[in-house]
Amino acid sequence: MTGTAVLFPTCVVDGVRPQVGVATVRLLRARGFRVELARSTTCCGQPAWNAGQVDAAARVARTTLAGLEEAGGDVVVVPAGSCATMIRRFWPELFRLAGEPGAAERAEALGQRVRELSELLAGLPAGLPAAGAAPGQADRGPGQAASAGPVVYHRSCHMLRELGIAEAPEQVLDGAGVERVANPTAGTCCGFGGLFAVKLPEASVAMADHVLDGCVASGAATVVGCDASCLLQLEGRARRRRLPLAFRHLAEVLAPE
Amino acid sequence: MSGPQPIDTEPSLRRRTALASSDARLRANLVRASGTLGSRKAAAFGALDDPEGLRHQARAIRHRVLARLPEVLEALADRVEAAGGRVHWASTAADAADAVVAVARSHGARLAVKSKSMASEEIGLNAALEHAGVEVVETDLGEWIVQVAEETPSHIIVPAIHRDRAQIARTLSTVAGRPLADDPQELAAFARDQLRRRFLEADIGISGVNFGVADTGTLVLVSNEGNGRMVTSMPPVHVALMGMERVVQTWAELEVMLALLPRAATGQAITSYVSLITGPAGRLEEGPEELHLVILDNGRSDILGSEFAEALACIRCGACLNACPVYRQVGGHAYGWVYPGPIGAVLTPLLQSSKSAQQLPQASSLCAACWEACPVGIPLQDLLLGLRRRSAAGAGAGARLAWEAWSRLWSRPATYQASLRAASVADRAAGSPASLPGHLDRWSAGRDLPTAEGPTFRQLWDQGRI
Amino acid sequence: MTADPDRQRFLGRLRAALAGGLHADPLRPVEPIGEGDPPPVSYAPVPGDTGARLLAAAGAAGAEAAAVTQAELPELVGRLCRQEKVATAVLSADPECDLIAPVLERAGVAVLARPAGRSEAAGADLGVTGALTAIASTGSVVVSSTVPGARWASLLPRVHLAVVRPERLVAQPAGLLRHLHRWAPGGLPSNLVCITGPSRSADIELELTLGVHGPRAVWVALLG
Predict the structure, then answer these.
(1) Which pTM value belongs to this model?
(2) Total structural domains in chain A?
(3) I need a labelling partner for B244 at 20 to 30 A (CA). Which of A25, A113, B109, B180 fits?
(4) What does each C-alpha distance from B38 to B240, B263, B295, C62, C120 come to in angstroms?
(5) Is A105 touching C (CB cutoff 8 A)?
(6) Domain of A114: which CATH number?
(7) Predicted ipTM?
């Protein structure tokens, strides 16, 4: 028994891609976690933070901070790289800027047990949950959600550069026996960037095209990522261009049926 | 017409980036160049024993210098003067341009040759000199190409990076008066012939400064083409224009910077020429009789005292441009001013007060590739976010109230959950900044909207279906 | 010196800006280095003695580099003049050029000036200098403005030949940059230039072209 995992669904998963949340729960249960849903959380506040709106971001983040504290658990699992980054890396600074040093300290304490999903999976030894880049055991469950043809993994920027999660997701996929090809544009931003996608849409679409061209060139049939926002951006553009690519969250690829 | 080069205020950042990203040839040129420069940099850093450690050291060195900048500049100036040079302290762009024009006038100069200096573009030096009757010839190959094309440079290191060989050949053919082949070797040979004569005739040579070394009053110039050497050797007067932050105290600190700058900029272990200039030519030496150092503030002191001080650590290598996924798609001109790319998006709003300048921090997805690439570890993504906060705080109440309304809705679980349960993505995003008028249209101009039907995750959970 | 009002005003503004200390990014603390100099830059090890490394690095930077004895100089110079089509030359006042002048004359090359003046150098095919020092890791030669003619001879002609004494070699740039008192004991000259290979540009499509404004060809002779 690996303990209790509190799931923070994130607004994109909750409202737009609930199947990612479902897959995450199944995956965690298959790894021996008891899964609870944080009841009183809302959003991590990132949209306002990225817009430089400290007060609005803090107001939202405050609710989620309290909700996650209340939910307890051994680990807080976040199936979205940018939200995990917001909570663990930026919340303390957000609360300090908002003039709430107490909340900043609480955020630092909470951050100790917050994990992005692939980070958690990669770091799991048999036993207690742990973070880290060491490859974990295979997450193959019976009848995992299959993708036809090889996958290519897209590295989302925030978790890559702010949380330092680089090879872990790829190691987890490889360890599960998923056929994977190298990504020629690994580490290149998809162009979502939150409101950037609608503030400078032409540049955003050009950036998506660059990444998508790399995915197509890799020979993959499916693009896999750990951040639904990136996947929505890439999928939205791919659909418009009628590219032969499917888009799946890591949890969807690995979760048992 | 004197005065600093104005920012391109029309059209807006949105229009400039839209225009640029629709130029397939530009994007192809940039993607190819970024890829090449990125791999050359990586290969060059491979020769270092501990690149990450060196980067941390370089960051600390720059911080130490900036924290003591007045003392370092005083030491530099004293040593330059002791070596026989003259120092001009230019608080504003106009002061700097005036100082150079005054030197030119005092020598009756008619022709100036220039090697690469971004600071000179910042202050509009060429226009000021031309207004004073001095012909100015850019001698850096890329700068000369854009000068002939009547453009501005689009990259810190490779000014004509946005043009391919065919475009450059066409441009230089107008100088030749005959069609030139689009072969880089031939084009460079043509440039050599054209510019050699100007070096020999020039009255005054104007250069930038890569680093000033305070311990000895030495100005360090790195270059590959040889025009930096020509400009600082041939004419009887050498004027060096230096941003006040481009200094180190000791030669040991310089060694660290010189190990990083060429590797980060062009993937070289060292440039073809590293010139160490200490004062004008002595009695038994040959070279310029006069050396002038113009130290430029032009808003840098405000940056130094602000939360954005670390932007002054920049050594102008251009690595952030090559790493930036936005720059790669829109190029340097989209940034509208002298400094493009991530460092430009930080410096321009700090050095320029116009509304157009304040838009530049929006030209980023905050992916932090710039920070990763920066040899002195400047957290440009933090600075961009800080600039957005500054903008938000200084802006009118409209945006703040919209965000506040959103945050009230989304800080209560009940109202947050209700908004997510709406029937469509458009409605689910309602009340959020994502649904501000026009935003969904901007998404769907180039991308299909995600479908969002059925229960939210929370509904599924509450219904016991997970 | 201190009376300049522009200077006082300029520095006063900086001191005021720094009154509260330099801002530190709370998210990314700077690792402190304390006082004192950073250690010399450390490079991945490269095999061979300094002479071999100099020749290899110079070659990699696009120079022709060879170790020669005095007896072998005429052959090298002859090869250079044939390969680079040299008809005229200028020399610096470096003592190493004493050995080169007669070789050039025997090869039928007209020595226009020694020490090289500006206009002679501009009209010559070849410029010959010694080297204050040479850096093995980068393949560089260092030329000083205190040697008459060296500045022009190493800059203006199409071809530059640098004759290097092995005892002047240093392994890394630190050997020059951290030891200037050794190389310029009386104080720094107005111009020290570290030359690595021919002049070059990659301004056109990032494609390498040689010989833009400085010499198109550089030869390094390590004279043992």
Answers:
(1) 0.94
(2) 2
(3) B109
(4) 30, 10, 32, 22, 42
(5) no
(6) 3.40.50
(7) 0.97
